[in-house]
Every structure is written in C-alpha cells, then in structure tokens.
Write a structure and sequence with these properties.
Elements (H helix, E strand, L loop, with lengths): L3 E6 L6 H10 L8 E6 L5 E2 L5 E2 L5 H6 L2 E4 L10 H12 L3 E4 L4 H6 L7 E2 L6 H7 L4 E2 L5 E3 L3 E4 L4 H14 L1 H11 L26 H8 L8 H8 L3 H12 L3 H19 L4 H7 L5 H12 L3 H8 L2
Helix pairs in contact: 1-6, 6-7, 12-13
C-alpha cells in the first residue's frame, strides 16, 4: 500500500487524550498505510496533563503530510501565525484537514473552516460560532465529514471520527478490527456520505446493549419494534426513548445502519452475489440494498466492492 503520511500537530496546552486518540488509531499496522508523526512549533509542547511532549518533527513535516490532524487545546486560543500559515497552505494544497475537539479553533483561525459545516466540544461551541461567523457551526453531533475537512466534538468523539477515517480509507472490516483492538464501538452511524452527524447520547437508566447484541445476531431475520421491546422487557414507547438516549438514533434507524455495516463487511470480505448479501444482512433484495447504499453512501454495492473488496 502507498504510505499515507499523517501529521499530528501538537499545540501548547494540548489535551493528552486528544493527542493520544489519533496516535493510537493511526499507529503502524499491517492492514493500514499510515505513517504518523507528532509535529510541533518548537522542541517541546506543554500539555494540560502536567507533562511535556517532545515533537518528532517541526512544521515542515506538516507541509509534507497527506492528512493534518489538530488535537484540542484547553482553553482554545489563537495559534502562532506560523502555525496558521502552514494550516492554510496545507488546506489550499488539498490536504485532508482534521480537528479533534477544540482543535477546530485552530482550523477556523486559519480559514480552513470557512463556508463548511464544523463542530467542537459543547462547552466551546458558542465561542466558535461567535468568533468565526463564516463557519457553519453544527450542534449535537459527534463529528462532521465535509470531504477534505473533518471535525469532531469533545474528546471521545475523536475516536468515532478517527475510526470513520479508517473506514473511509480501508473499509469497514479493517475499521472494525481496529475498533475491537481498542475495545471501542466499531462505528457510530448517523448521516450521509459527506456529512455524518449523530446526536450526542445521554446516559440511560439501564443499558440496552443486550438487546442490541441480540438483534446483531439476527440481522438476516425480520426484526420489528415490537420484538425489540419484548426482548428488552419494555413498552415500545419506553424502548424508543431509552434507545435514543443510549445510541443517539431510533431503534429502526440503528437496525438499518447495522445491516448496512454487515453488508459492507460481506462485500469487502466475500465473493457472494449482491442478492445473497442483501438477504444475509436483512435487506431482502439486491434492489433494496442498492437503494439504501445509494442513500447512505452515494455509491452502489458493486462499486463499493471494487473499491474495498479483497
């Protein structure tokens, strides 16, 4: 595979977890093509965790990168002009620009977010909207993919965004393997191919993970809302409320996303005909699978297989 160079730009007061998430997910693995380097303006960067990071490279490595990731800093401030110039240059050259949490402020200050949808940590979202009126700020989303500009909400949403990038680059099967290694949810769906939002979930009274696991084992079978509620021991109304609180989406939308995820894995890892893939993932017919692929991914099952199939 062609090496894909990633620059993690660590700014002063960087949040350690925001830096560690992409460093871990984009680490060297046989099944991915990433070469990740921590970059900085100087020889050391102070973190909010009370320790210092020693960058491996300077801003020149940012210029040479294919993807530039800016982890969050707290409080978010305006980076030095040299940093803003490098970010603006990378964006103008068509590099993929990514922010984790309040890293969006650095991208916005460099003009990278002008005219596109973007998000950040909920505590700072009003500040982002006031400071950068040219940015279309979105609330209550985990992350947003606008093609070559991607932003995530606070901290752990960076995991969702980074796994989404792996999924975009290498397919669902590889992203799911990376997620299993992290003991993380494989992928939190919620939108279209170039704009992927999902409401930030609130903690429910009790987990419905057992019901979701039960449904995942039966994706090839018809599953109704009544059957989900019966398995959970809840009324349908209560199931709808609790399910949305835990996952940020409705039970039937979650089920559709799970079936599409299963279809993607089958298309990537098997030579089964599209009609059989549709049956095994519970979408019934090849025509129905094509319809949902077109709506959710703006492509066809056959084209997807050509891109990601073994």
């Amino acid at each position: 595979m062609t090496v894909h160079r990633i620059a993690l730009l660590a700014l002063d007061d960087v949040m350690p977890l925001d830096l560690a998430i992409p460093a871990q997910i984009f680490g060297s693995r046989p099944e991915t093509s990433y070469e990740t380097t921590v970059c900085g303006l100087g020889t050391k960067v102070d973190t909010t965790g009370g320790f210092t990071v020693l960058p491996e490279a300077d801003l020149e490595r940012v210029r040479a990168a294919d993807t530039v990731i800016v982890p969050g800093a707290e409080p978010p401030g305006r980076p030095p002009e040299a940093v803003l110039a490098v970010l603006a240059e990378a964006h103008e050259r068509g590099k993929r620009m990514v922010s984790i949490c309040t890293g969006a402020f650095a991208l916005a200050a460099a003009g990278v977010l002008d005219g596109v949808r973007a998000t950040t940590h909920w505590q700072y979202i009003d500040d982002l909207e006031r400071a950068f009126p040219a940015v279309s700020v979105e609330r209550d989303v985990l992350y947003i993919d606008e093609g070559n500009v991607l932003t995530s909400a606070g901290v752990c949403c960076g995991i969702d965004l980074c796994l989404h990038i792996v999924r975009r680059d290498h397919g669902a099967a590889v992203a799911n393997r990376v997620a299993r290694g992290l003991v993380a949810a494989p992928h939190r769906e919620g939108g279209q191919a170039q704009y992927v939002p999902a409401p930030v979930p609130a903690a429910g009274d009790a987990s419905l993970s057992g019901t979701r696991a039960w449904a995942l084992r039966r994706l090839g079978e018809p599953i109704t809302l009544r059957e989900l509620a019966r398995h959970a021991g809840l009324s349908q109304r209560t199931l709808m409320r609790r399910f949305t609180e835990e996952t940020g989406t409705t039970p039937l939308q979650w089920l559709l996303n799970a079936r599409l995820g299963r279809a993607r894995e089958l298309l990537e890892t098997t030579d089964q005909p599209v009609a059989r893939v549709a049956r095994e993932c519970g979408l019934g017919t090849a025509a129905n699978l094509r319809l949902h692929f077109r709506r959710a991914l703006d492509t066809t099952p056959t084209a997807y297989r050509r891109t990601f199939g073994r």
